[in-house]
Specification:
homodimer; 10-stranded mixed beta sheet; 10 strands; 22% helix; alpha+beta; globular; 256 residues
Chain lengths: 256, 256
């Protein structure tokens, strides 16, 4: 059967989610826990290959296994075998054709900024410290240009091979709470480094380098060099991945 | 001249604030940065000797030095010499008789609880994860018995040598925000482990082990065995230390 995992992690100590030649990835650690639990080598397929230092509250991965362990109990059994900076939040059985990447998805990210003179040592790996003042209201106005279907070629790191750079954004919002500024974005997909380049551009708008309206021109330019810098990885959190098509099918009951 | 530092830190990697025989304390690291900056061995005196794993947003320490560096610039100069999990938030000159411990102080602590099924890997060192449901409203009602002048002998770890176990609490509040519960307490002083034992007692009240009114009886008993367990260190944050007497004197201008 196919098992879907919802995975939360602090990405600080890992070389991203996906296994690679250099360093330990989150995938390696989870696959090692799976091997220990099921006594066989198992591979997982993930929804999002987050970069080094990027965090998640709800990444999704699947794997196939034959087992008598109840699907809902697999989360607890894996957590007993995982380090504290990786937690399986939920486990459930899904149909054999469920793939976390190749079907309709709605992803939500948060980019976190601490905007005050001194960084917070407790949150040093979990937010981007910007000491000069940012105007969050201007950043929010700029973020509104992102909502809808657009070509995000200006917000994509070079070397990315995707069929299209068009994506649909359902929500984009910048909220200040005291010294902290969060940029929330929800869409049907994101290009490589897209949220971090958007965050970097919003930071430049927040410091007054150019006005909120510039965001529309940057989008239209379809040129990476028009956008801001790629913001630090540690401020980024993958909050949630939803599968609307699949969730609707679930609600209608299992098919024969 | 005497310099007052406001110090924030993630206590996870240190054996408490005060220097001791086993392991590295936060004091050691700061004194090493001071020696590097001023080219002489300097000792600091702190307001609070937080335990291993306890955090701070505003611990206070002083040291004496003769220097041409402007007092307000010392914070930046020290931060350049400190690891990221310790930050000097502010530095200023104070009168030579200012002592962070031996004068009127008002301290505020926060004890943080994550109350849901799974822990948050990003916050694993910064909050106490309790998976069974807690009734924060009951905890807040119990906390109200703490306000005022009381003998807190029931909330003091044994082996503590203080002249008196009477302290005055100005504010005690338990607030739930989503899955997170915070216990805030402000008072003129705290006995050894007092906030953690109070938090442990509130957690037992929150889970329904005994009713909020029991807090009054536990206070009256003046017996450590009547209170709850000492809650984990990692949930505790020293938020702020104020010096009302000294602040009043400051407002009236420097004395001749």
């Amino acid at each position: 059967m196919r098992i879907k995992l919802i995975i939360a992690y602090d990405g600080t100590n890992y070389h991203g989610f996906q296994s690679q030649v250099n360093g330990i990835a989150i995938q390696d650690v989870i696959e090692s826990a799976l091997a220990d639990l099921f006594c066989e080598p198992l591979r997982i397929k993930s929804a999002s290959r987050t970069d080094t230092g990027v965090h998640a509250e709800g990444n999704v991965a699947v794997f196939d296994v034959e087992t008598r362990i109840a699907p809902s109990k697999i989360a607890l059994a894996l957590n007993a075998r995982l380090p504290e900076d990786i937690r399986i939040v939920d486990s459930e059985e899904v149909p054999g054709d469920f793939h976390p990447r190749f079907q309709e998805t709605v992803k939500t990210y948060e980019y976190r900024i601490l905007n005050r003179k001194f960084p917070d040592p407790m949150m040093r790996n979990l937010e981007n410290h910007i000491y000069y003042p940012l105007d969050a209201e201007k950043m929010d106005r700029a973020a509104q240009y992102l909502v809808g279907e657009h070509d995000f070629a200006s917000f994509c790191s070079s070397g990315y091979s995707s069929k299209t750079t068009v994506r649909t954004i359902y929500r984009a919002e910048v909220i200040r709470t005291g010294d902290r500024i969060s940029f929330f974005i929800t869409g049907n997909g994101f290009l490589y480094n897209m949220v971090r380049i958007l965050a970097g551009t919003l930071i430049e708008i927040g410091e007054g380098k150019y006005p909120p309206e510039e965001m529309e021109k940057i989008l239209e330019a379809r040129d990476r060099s028009c956008a801001g810098q790629t913001a630090l990885a540690k401020g980024l959190v993958l909050k949630e991945i939803r599968y609307p098509e699949w969730e609707r099918a679930q609600e209608q009951g299992p098919l024969a």
